[in-house]
Amino acid sequence: MARAPADSHLTPQATQPGGHVPVMLAEVLDALQPADGGIYLDATFGLGGYAKGILDSAACTVWGLDRDPQAIARGQAMTEAEDGRLHLAEGRFGALDRVLEERGVAPVDGIAFDLGVSSPQLDVAERGFSFRFDGPLDMRMGSDGPTAADVVNELAEGDLARIVRDYGEEKKARRVARAITQARGDKPIQRTGELAEIVRGAVGHARGKAKAHEIDPATRTFQAIRIYVNDELGELERGLAAAERALKPGGRLAVVSFHSLEDRAVKQFLRTRSGDVPRASRHSPDPDPADRLPEPTFRVLFRQAKKPRADEAETNPRARSARLRAAERTAAPAWANFEEGRA
After folding, report:
1. Residue 286's domain is classified under what CATH number?
2. DSSP H/E element including 157
3. Which residues carry a binding-site annotation?
4. CA distances from 144 to 17, 74, 92, 105 (A)
5. DSSP state of 88
6. Residues 142, 177: one domain?
7. DSSP character for 60?
8. Binding site for S-adenosyl-L-methionine, residues?
9. Are residues 238 and 110 in the same domain?
């Protein structure tokens, strides 16, 4: 979750209460540029890393949003310590503009996203996100909706293959789906350890001694099921559009993603909303006014995604795949009823 500008008292590897090391915090805060009197949103509160970094950078107010009730409960002690400068709200960031409006705090000066699963969700076996610990197949970031067990035991083989292929980018998706459906025919798959072994058997282990950098064969399938269970890509699309509506002119958006599907979605959104789209040939007829894109709502702060520094990637393995994109809100009205820039 977040980091501070070069002149901040936070060091690049600042560890916050509870041993939490926010990913790319310095770069995120450099993008947000927190200012005294500003109002900021940590849209993925988690352990409060970005929120704490913003609060330490300026005499400002921060709202922390999270769909996980456990994250909100953990953050209560932090709100008390910040003496009225931090406020928490439970909810999905796809509706962040409504959450802020209901509390009378929109528009805001900056919004930060730290996408994907949080450390507590990964590290608690009962949440069922990781195969490092055997636990119930849950994977829900919130407390509602179907679990991962529901998905692997109830969906058709073809649907499972599509999920594993599209969200996990697993080349052996069909083989994985077939192995899952065969295994559940004997008994329901209820534990992370069970599913991991089924997938490993289908994908196969690398020949010879595994190298330290090689990922577990079950990694891509677990990622795919988690993304599907939580509708993470749909939620990201809604969250970016909500941030566009909630930011004031000159407000900053900073998004840290951890896999290519997320980063691609953020890149496409910012390219479209900044007007960076392919231009028609000069020989093409003038477009119909109804097909023209609205005025750009964002100015991209840096064209290429930023990666974590080498020292951070070395000391914090979870930071290695992180990518940061950021943009500044223009004064143009938010796009209405547009999907990827088209009505």
Report:
1. 3.40.50.150
2. helix 157-168
3. 48-50, 66, 93, 114, 121
4. 29, 19, 12, 27
5. E
6. yes
7. -
8. 48-50, 66, 93, 114, 121
9. yes
